[in-house]
């Protein structure tokens, strides 16, 4: 239990105003609250599942004492998760004198809107980009816009606007620049170290004060829905209309956001978002950076967590296969008790993980490949970016001095009911010379390891063929070729 | 905009004239979130919210409906079923009485609305929908048209045959002939704003419906029929849509009708805004087609005769499937002269949502059939497809009669393609790509240049009319209204430019107002790319009437001949003096001159006899061409569009900035249709791609890496259109065919260009990889 008495209000800042809400349903979304309660109707609902970005707002929070702003999808973000944050909506951008913000003016001048419905979301995503990278490259702009759909413009005019924003001067009137210090101080003041508890029964939510507090709460209420980034649970509410109470919001727990490297392994806290994990992983394991670039849109990467991606057990989660191939271990915690297991052992069957009631994923420990090891992860999806995987393969290879396979770990997503190792393929490769002939001979073993399904993302036939071909690609990439092996924006 | 500023009386030109780049009239409101869409309007006090209960099976008779739990759910006020429709339970836009508002006795597709819940909140209504217990006796469901027989199986509307010459005879004696079959997928509109209607009851049983629709007059008529009241009791209004693309031509009728019925029953405003998934399940899409073709040609690749059957998945009702499948046939020639042709449509009944209008309206599917035939002939003769294309283009003075017996009088495709071929360095790049592919084992490149010729006019001749209403107030400011709707395409600003031009006043003196059936009646849908052609002309007509009255008034008052009166920017020269426009208007008012006019326009020259398959259905044609280069990963089928060059024409454009946006946007939407946008039904006939998580429209990162778009500066409409401009809404969509054919070209490289890849659409990475596998197998065999 937290030492201080629980608070019964969620407190945050909306644009300029302080907000304290004691009447918050655990499943109330930020978008509904903005549009219905606050009558702020600039943010739009396009899909209510975090894919189109029409509802994009910025959320400011203190991260290691620094104020950072990130774009999020208000449609799947819960109000209960907003404690000690600063919500910035499109209504906040225009100057008091009516002058448009540089981001807005550029969008007007370069004809970046047609029907205009997606536009507030684009403005907010571009605003978030401009704040951290005033002179972005085309690749940066495209990445920042992966979570924003426009059906009218074909994006070209938006790209022209995005490239031009920095030419509109330093934007002395930018509200967030002007307010920055004051906002940081106000947010710091909102962090009072108290647990938040609101409501009971079907309308109960808890925001634990700390990691220990979370462990205690969850042990006491093991049937609670644990929500970190809400990129999955958000849809349980908006699409499946499931009851999720009681809800424990853990997105604000700093102790779950640590990343540290010791002894050739990186430990990643379960609450680390994809965005936060990106630079560290991309730096140490570049192919993971490429993968994270294609996982969700910017908003989802700002919300979704590594822990959530692991814990929900989806067969098409993007991070488990590479983490399994790397030989990662999970730290699970229940109350004060911790245990560590291999990630691959966590997945028992579809929808079933090795996790006891009240137990949660605290961190994942990712061994780094040795210098002479080869590691790659490849994602295949119908649309290159912001799409759910149809097949994803990860490979970690160590060659012996004689050119034979000393060890290889291969894991796939989208090929079975859980993320799964290709044990038969591995067995067919180990000890053999790493040659095209060996690879070709081993391909048949995919059919031992996997019996993929046909669904809207891909047929079983394609999944199997593509999976085999990813091993072929890995071979070609590890043995060197002048010609390109993959297509891509940067290729 | 619209701030009160004094007009510049010395200006050489007005602000906002025609042929100038003008921003979208709402751009500054779009970027601030201040543009009001229907869901953003302040709700009248006590507004209730509706949600729909949808069928969970594809085809069944309904044995029982138990809504007791729905009715007692928290917040529920009312539940409607078919029996509660006071007037006709039908919204068939063509009067075929085959499309109920709410299902009655049977359901014919997965997602068909069966009941409507009205509750205090939208969430309460949505939650309550889930509590219904509906018992079905399932019936066999027809989902795909691949195995259907166009001559035997059920059609939703009578088919069309186009015929010129003896196709069968010509093909039979042709030096070479081949036949094949292709599949081209449908497409969800994915307008960012889903369907929405807000109905507000009035006195005497009147109702006003704010509806996100491209066709307010039809919504008005449908609501009136559903209510069993005259049309005069219903007013439909729309300021702007968050995208339409054809998806709001007829598909809003259902929700408008249900909102209006509920509003009248309960005496309270009712809003129905669909959840995205419900929207994608319950509303129609672009038709997918299976196209059978047979072609006779000579050794040079000159096509002599073509026989086509275009079979379309229409869904359970006709909706617009008749005119859509007709337009597919109208474009089975694209830009090519088929010396002998027979083309038949088969608008087939299926147990899927009733397909509807979508940008191009069947035209794109028609053209895809033309381009496949070109590809087949190119591979059969071993020539570059571009050579075959050019060889078969329509002539200018001969070889210029279409399959529907209209002579092409404005053909500029030769010059468009010649200019693009040069500016895109087609020939050099063709060589470079061959060299690249020879040295690249896994990644292969492909290149294609495809033309577009698109017929402009509604093929339903009576739709080619429009009205406008123009008021000049005594301060010289102008109120503009017309029957066209704004869905982002910039119609409002273009028509305002036309009116500003007529009066020679700055465009900020012209107030753009919401489309409403109360101001301009009996309008046509804003569709068929005709918005500015029709409404621009109608508004010009209205403005000219007033200008004429002002001219006559000035001539009379100042005793100068009419030919010495000239409308200069923001002023009028009357003999030797210049009078500010507002002053002249004020004087005219004092002299009791009418300062308001209703304008009207009907497109001349067009006629169409469907029974004979002959006529002049199109006022003119719009032309363009594109050249695309792609890279394909032959291990996974993934691809990237490396570069696209486009040369498109919109005549003497009213507003090149707006037109450029239409070309770029149309092209990217077309890429989506042909690549990643896949509608996928499971074994039970359930559409499983009904949200952006599963249905993938293009992203910014799907644009061509290099994208050169040029609006040709030399064409001018052959006919006296509005300021000699041409339509732009639909034609650029089909420029995306170059991407499909570039993919096909890359695939062909794995078999040394000896086998036609017959790459169907959408060419998902899976389809591309499977085509590669097939070609490799065929090349070995």
Could you give the distance between the termini of chain B? 68 Å
Count of alpha and pi helical runs of chain B: 18
Would you tell me the structural class of the helices and strands of chain B? alpha+beta
Gap from first CA to last CA of chain A:
53 Å
Oligomer: heterodimer
What top-tier CATH class of the largest domain in chain A fits best?
A: Alpha Beta
Strand segment count of chain B: 29
Can you tell me the number of structural domains of chain A?
4
Stretches of chain B where pLDDT is under 50 for at least 5 consecutive residues are: none
Overall spatial form of chain B? globular
Low-confidence stretches of chain A: none
In the CATH hierarchy, the third-tier topology of the largest domain in chain B is known as Aldehyde Oxidoreductase, domain 4
**How would a textbook summarize the main sheet of chain B?**
8 strands, mixed
- Provide the CATH superfamily of the largest domain in chain B: Aldehyde oxidase/xanthine dehydrogenase, molybdopterin binding domain
Number of strand segments of chain A:
20
Description:
The complex is a heterodimer of chains A (491) and B (781). In chain A, 32% of the residues lie in helices and 21% in strands. Chain A is an alpha+beta fold and 491 residues long. Chain A has four domains: 10-91 and 178-249, Beta-grasp domain (Ubiquitin-like (UB roll), Roll); 102-172, [2Fe-2S]-binding domain (DNA polymerase, domain 1); 254-367, Uridine Diphospho-n-acetylenolpyruvylglucosamine Reductase, domain 3; 374-479, CO dehydrogenase flavoprotein, C-terminal domain (Enolase-like, domain 1), CATH 3.30.390.50. With 781 residues, chain B is of the alpha+beta class. Chain B folds into three domains: 27-36 and 465-602, Aldehyde Oxidoreductase, domain 4; 47-140 and 195-273, Aldehyde oxidase/xanthine dehydrogenase, a/b hammerhead (Aldehyde Oxidoreductase, domain 3); 383-459 and 616-780, Aldehyde Oxidoreductase, domain 4. Chain B contains 18 helices and 29 strands. In chain B, helix 5 crosses helix 6 (253-266) and helix 17 (737-748) packs parallel to helix 18. Chain B is globular and about 90 Å long. Classes of the chains: A alpha+beta (491), B alpha+beta (781). Chains A and B meet through helix 2, helix 3, helix 4, helix 5 and helix 18 of A and helix 1, helix 3, strand 27, helix 16 and helix 18 of B.
């Amino acid at each position: 239990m937290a030492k201080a008495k629980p608070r019964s209000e969620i407190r945050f800042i909306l644009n300029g105003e302080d907000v304290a809400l004691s009447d918050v349903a655990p499943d109330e979304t930020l978008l509904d609250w903005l549009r219905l309660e606050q009558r702020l109707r600039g943010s739009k609902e396009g899909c209510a599942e975090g894919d189109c970005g029409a509802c994009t707002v910025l959320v400011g929070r203190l991260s290691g004492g620094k104020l950072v702003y990130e774009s999020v999808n208000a449609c799947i973000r819960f109000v209960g998760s907003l404690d000690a944050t600063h919500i910035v909506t499109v209504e906040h951008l225009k100057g008091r004198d009516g002058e448009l913000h540089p981001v807005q003016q550029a969008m007007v001048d370069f004809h970046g809107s047609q029907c205009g419905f997606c536009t507030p979301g684009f403005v907010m995503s571009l605003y978030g980009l401009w704040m951290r990278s005033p002179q972005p490259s085309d690749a940066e702009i495209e990445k920042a816009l992966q979570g924003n759909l426009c059906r009218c413009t074909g994006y070209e005019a938006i790209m022209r606007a995005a490239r031009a924003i920095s030419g509109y001067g330093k934007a002395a009137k930018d509200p967030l620049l002007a307010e920055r210090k004051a906002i940081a101080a106000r947010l710091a003041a909102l962090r009072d170290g108290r647990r938040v508890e609101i409501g009971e029964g079907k309308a109960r939510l808890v925001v634990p004060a700390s990691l220990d507090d979370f462990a205690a709460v969850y042990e006491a209420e093991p049937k609670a829905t644990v929500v970190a980034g809400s990129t999955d649970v958000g849809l349980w509410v908006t699409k499946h209309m499931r009851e999720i109470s009681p809800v424990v919001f853990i997105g604000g727990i700093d102790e779950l956001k640590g990343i540290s490297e010791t002894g050739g392994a990186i430990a990643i806290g379960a609450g680390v978002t994809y965005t936060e994990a990106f630079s560290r992983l991309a730096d140490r394991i570049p192919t993971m950076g490429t993968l994270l670039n294609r996982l969700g849109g910017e908003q989802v990467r700002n919300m979704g967590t590594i822990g959530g991606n692991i814990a929900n057990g989806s067969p098409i989660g993007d991070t488990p296969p590479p983490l399994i191939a790397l030989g990662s271990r999970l730290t699970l915690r229940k109350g004060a008790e911790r245990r560590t297991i291999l990630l691959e052992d966590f997945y028992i069957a579809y929808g079933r993980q090795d996790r006891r009631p009240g137990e949660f994923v605290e961190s994942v420990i990712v061994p780094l490949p040795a210098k002479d090891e080869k590691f790659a992860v490849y994602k295949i999806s119908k649309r290159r970016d912001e799409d759910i995987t149809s097949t994803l393969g990860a490979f970690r290879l160590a060659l012996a001095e004689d050119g034979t396979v000393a060890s290889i770990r291969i894991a796939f997503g989208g090929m079975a009911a859980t993320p799964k190792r290709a044990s038969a393929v591995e067995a067919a490769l180990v000890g053999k010379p790493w040659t095209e002939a060996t690879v070709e001979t081993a391909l048949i073993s995919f059919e031992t390891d996997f019996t993929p399904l046909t669904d809207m993302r891909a047929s079983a036939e394609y999944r199997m063929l593509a999976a085999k071909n990813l091993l072929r690609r890995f071979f070609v990439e590890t043995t060197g070729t002048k010609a390109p092996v993959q297509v891509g924006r940067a290729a | 905009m619209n701030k009160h500023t004094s007009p510049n009386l010395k200006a050489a030109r007005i602000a906002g004239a025609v042929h100038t780049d003008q921003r979208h009239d709402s751009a500054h409101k779009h970027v601030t979130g201040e543009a009001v869409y229907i869901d953003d309007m302040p709700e009248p006090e006590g507004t209730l919210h509706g949600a729909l209960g949808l069928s969970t099976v594809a085809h069944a008779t309904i044995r029982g409906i138990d809504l007791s739990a729905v009715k007692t759910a928290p917040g529920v006020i009312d539940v409607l079923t078919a029996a509660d429709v006071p007037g006709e339970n039908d919204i068939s836009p063509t009067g075929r009485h085959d499309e109920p508002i709410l299902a009655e006795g049977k359901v014919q597709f997965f997602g068909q609305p069966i009941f409507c819940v009205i509750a205090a909140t939208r969430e309460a209504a949505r939650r309550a929908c889930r509590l219904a217990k509906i018992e079905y006796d399932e019936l066999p469901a027809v989902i795909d048209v691949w195995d259907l027989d166009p001559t035997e199986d059920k059609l939703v509307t009578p088919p069309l045959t186009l015929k010129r010459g003896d196709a069968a005879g010509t093909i039979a004696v042709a030096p070479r002939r081949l036949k094949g079959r292709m599949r081209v997928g449908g497409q969800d509109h994915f307008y960012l704003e889903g369907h929405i209607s807000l109905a507000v009851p009035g006195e005497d049983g009147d109702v006003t419906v704010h509806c996100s629709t491209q066709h307010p007059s039809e919504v008005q008529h449908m609501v009136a029929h559903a209510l069993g009241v005259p049309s005069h009791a219903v007013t439909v209004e729309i300021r702007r849509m968050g995208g339409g693309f054809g998806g709001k031509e007829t598909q809003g009728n259902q929700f408008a009708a249900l909102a209006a019925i509920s509003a009248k029953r309960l005496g309270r405003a009712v809003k129905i805004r669909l959840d995205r998934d419900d929207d994608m399940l319950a509303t129609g899409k672009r038709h997918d087609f299976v196209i059978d073709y047979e072609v006779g040609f000579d050794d040079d690749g000159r096509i002599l005769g073509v026989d086509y059957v275009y079979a379309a998945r229409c869904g359970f009702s006709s909706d617009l499937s008749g005119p859509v499948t007709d337009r597919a046939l109208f474009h089975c020639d694209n830009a090519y002269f088929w010396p002998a042709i027979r083309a038949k449509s088969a608008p087939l009944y299926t147990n899927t949502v009733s397909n509807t209008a979508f940008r191009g309206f069947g035209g794109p599917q028609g053209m895809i059939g033309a381009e496949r035939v070109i590809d087949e002939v190119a591979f059969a003769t071993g020539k570059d497809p571009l050579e075959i294309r050019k060889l078969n283009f329509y002539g200018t003075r001969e070889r210029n009669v279409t399959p529907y017996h209209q002579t092409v009088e404005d053909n500029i495709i030769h010059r468009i393609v010649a200019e693009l071929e040069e500016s895109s360095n087609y020939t050099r790049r063709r060589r470079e790509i061959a060299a690249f592919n020879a040295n690249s084992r896994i990644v292969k490149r492909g290149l294609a240049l495809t033309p577009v010729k698109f017929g402009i006019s509604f093929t339903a001749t009576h739709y080619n009319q429009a009205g406008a209403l123009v008021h000049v107030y005594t301060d010289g400011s102008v109120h503009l209204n017309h029957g066209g709707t704004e869905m982002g395409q910039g119609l409002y600003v273009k028509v305002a430019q036309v009116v500003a031009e007529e009066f020679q006043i700055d465009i900020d003196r012209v107030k753009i107002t919401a489309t409403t059936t109360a101001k301009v009646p009996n309008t046509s849908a804003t569709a068929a790319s005709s918005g500015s052609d029709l409404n621009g002309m109608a508004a010009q007509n209205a403005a000219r009437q007033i200008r004429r009255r002002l001219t006559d008034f000035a001539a009379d008052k100042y005793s100068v001949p009419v030919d010495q009166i000239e409308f200069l920017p923001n002023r009028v020269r009357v003999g030797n003096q210049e009078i500010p426009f507002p002053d002249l208007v004020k004087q005219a008012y004092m002299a009791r001159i009418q300062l308001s006019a209703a304008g009207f326009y009907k497109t001349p020259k067009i006629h169409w006899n469907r029974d004979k398959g002959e006529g002049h259905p199109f006022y003119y044609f719009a032309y363009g061409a594109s050249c695309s280069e792609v890279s394909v990963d032959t291990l996974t089928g993934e691809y990237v569009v490396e570069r696209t060059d486009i040369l498109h024409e919109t005549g003497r454009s009213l507003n090149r900035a707006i037109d450029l946006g239409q070309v770029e946007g149309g092209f990217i939407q077309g890429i989506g249709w042909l690549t990643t946008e896949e509608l996928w039904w499971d074994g039970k006939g359930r559409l499983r791609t009904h949200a952006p998580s599963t249905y993938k429209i293009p992203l910014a990162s799907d644009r061509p890496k290099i994208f050169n778009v040029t609006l040709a500066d030399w064409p001018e409409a052959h006919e006296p259109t509005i300021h000699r401009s041409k339509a732009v809404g639909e034609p650029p969509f089909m420029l995306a065919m170059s991407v499909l054919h570039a993919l096909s070209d890359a695939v062909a490289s794995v078999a040394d260009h000896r086998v036609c890849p017959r790459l169907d659409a959408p060419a998902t990475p899976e389809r591309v990889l499977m085509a590669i596998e097939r070609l490799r197998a065929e090349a070995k065999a």
